[in-house]
Write a structure and sequence with these properties.
Layout: E1 5-8, E2 14-16, E3 22-26, E4 32-42, E5 50-63, E6 68-72, H1 74-77, H2 85-88, E7 102-114, E8 122-124, E9 130-131, E10 135-138, E11 161-163, E12 189-192, E13 200-206, E14 213-222, E15 225-232, E16 239-244, H3 247-258, E17 276-284, E18 296-298, E19 304-306, E20 309-314, E21 325-330, E22 336-341, E23 344-357, E24 373-387, H4 393-398, H5 400-404, E25 408-413, E26 422-438, E27 444-452
Parallel strand pairs: 2-10, 11-13, 12-20
Antiparallel strand pairs: 1-3, 3-6, 4-5, 4-7, 5-6, 7-8, 7-9, 7-10, 13-16, 14-15, 14-17, 17-20, 18-19, 21-22, 21-25, 23-24, 24-27, 25-26, 26-27
């Protein structure tokens, strides 16, 4: 009794809830049948107050002769992260710190012992418990063609965390996206001022004993000429953060965090001052003892450099195209990407229902204006077929994530909208309809179908 201790603790600040999260305890007591643990979750972000989730899991012997009992928290933390609600509800209230996408957890573990009084009876020995390290669970999934850590395993997401994730990495950090970054002369995508303000990049930031300062860098260009550069410090604590790209939202966030007007992308009269925005981020030690870390890239020739994301800014209707549909979707790293589709989109409507026969009057007399045969109920399904504009190989590969994403929205106009003229409509991608067309010049087109998540209802008889 009393030698119940942690054997393998959780050794990262940020963990993927889609990969094993292992914690184990050790005891040489011979009266332990197995162990139990309850997962605790932080009540509100940065509160430091943890509440029971009601999820109790068993830890069975990993090495019985050594008295080691192992717990895997992976499956049990998913329900508390990745709601997607903060993006869908952020049209009028842009939230930079997107804590709805992650939560802090720990597990309290204790032994289940054989009773010394009743034969074959067990009891929970809550007087001999230990707690794991606190970690932040985030909905990132890893794959075998990406570098995430020095050990080359699929469990630790060190390269996705800007800062010290319990293991210092060289500059291989990245935003939570695989969207092509583009260049100043060939931007990744276009941000239209008429769009909703939700176009963003996302990042995991860990500030603590090693790095204590997080900065976002913005560069502005007009007609190819450099206009200016600024920095913004939106947080001083660890968080899952969104970095605004919409010019009006950048100006608003800068005013909120600094108390002064930026006037780099939009002036005080609402006039657009720039047609390009380039975004970068760093984490550093304010004492300048440690070198800054930042997102990087390595090109096909092995050249290494800082990775900026480049976007065009437009006020033209449909960005100068005949039509446009903007898709937003959750990517596999736990961020949210957007894609401007300028190709053709066609719509078809299918209906189904139940017919019924009815009669009126006691004498069997039926007025000629009454329905005798009518639909008891009718169900309508609107299906949209998409054929994209020409795409590069890099962008076509990236958009495979749109097809497999569990959360996809389409931005549509709202008739007589008060707070906003746009709304994000949840849709379901028909994965079986996806096809990729490639020309001999390596130009790609994607084709797929989608339906709205909420069917349009009709009146019942």
């Amino acid at each position: 009794m009393g030698n119940f201790t942690k054997y393998r603790d959780i050794n990262r600040y940020w963990k993927s809830v889609y990969r094993p999260i292992i914690c184990s305890v050790r005891s040489t007591d011979s009266d332990i049948a197995f162990c139990r643990g309850e997962i605790m979750v932080e009540q509100t972000w940065d509160s430091g107050v943890y509440s029971p989730t009601g999820i109790v899991i068993d830890g069975h012997a990993k090495l019985k002769f050594a008295g080691i009992y192992e717990f895997n928290l992976m499956d049990h933390c998913r329900h508390f992260v990745c709601s997607g609600s903060f993006l869908a509800d952020s049209s009028g209230n842009f939230q930079m710190q997107s804590q709805g996408e992650c939560s802090r957890f720990k597990i309290v573990m204790w032994p289940v012992r054989y009773s010394g009084v009743l034969q074959n009876a067990l009891y929970d020995d809550l007087t001999d418990s230990v707690s794991s390290n606190i970690f932040i669970g985030v909905g990132a999934t890893t794959h075998d063609t990406q570098h995430y850590n020095m050990s080359e395993n699929l469990q630790d997401i060190d390269s996705l965390v800007l800062g010290d994730n319990g293991w210092i990495l060289p500059n291989v950090h990245s935003f939570l996206t695989e969207m092509p970054g583009g260049t100043q002369n060939s931007p990744s995508q276009i941000i239209n001022r008429d769009e909703d303000i939700d176009s963003s990049l996302y990042a995991l930031v860990e500030l603590g004993s090693v790095y204590d300062t997080f900065l976002i860098y913005y560069r502005a260009y007009l007609n190819g000429s450099f206009v200016g550069m600024t920095t913004m410090q939106p947080t001083t604590t660890s968080t899952h953060i969104r970095i605004p790209l919409h010019p009006d939202r950048i100006e608003q966030e800068y005013l909120m965090h600094t108390g002064s007007a930026l006037n780099l992308f939009v002036d005080g009269s609402g006039n657009l001052l720039s047609d390009r925005v380039c975004v970068f981020m760093t984490a550093s030690d304010s004492s300048s003892v440690a070198q800054s870390i930042y997102p990087t890239y390595t090109d096909e020739y092995g050249n290494f450099g800082a990775k900026w994301y480049n976007f065009a800014i437009s006020e033209e209707k449909n960005d100068g195209h005949c039509q446009k549909t903007k898709f937003l979707f959750k990517n596999h790293l736990g961020g949210y990407d957007f894609f401007n589709c300028y190709g053709t989109i066609s719509k078809s409507v299918s209906t189904s229902g139940q017919e019924m026969q009815s009669h009126y009057g006691l004498t069997g007399y039926t007025p000629s204006s009454q329905h005798t045969r009518k639909m008891l109920w009718t169900q309508r399904e609107d299906e949209f077929s998409v054929f994209s504009q020409p795409l590069t190989t890099e962008k076509a590969d990236w958009l495979a994530g749109l097809i497999t994403s569990p959360q996809v929205w389409v931005e549509e106009d709202i008739k007589d909208g008060f707070y906003t003229k746009k709304r994000k409509i949840p849709v379901i991608i028909d994965q079986a309809s996806y096809s990729l067309h490639t020309t001999e010049d390596s130009v790609h087109f994607i084709q797929f179908k989608y339906t709205k998540s909420q069917r349009r209802t009709t009146q019942r008889t």
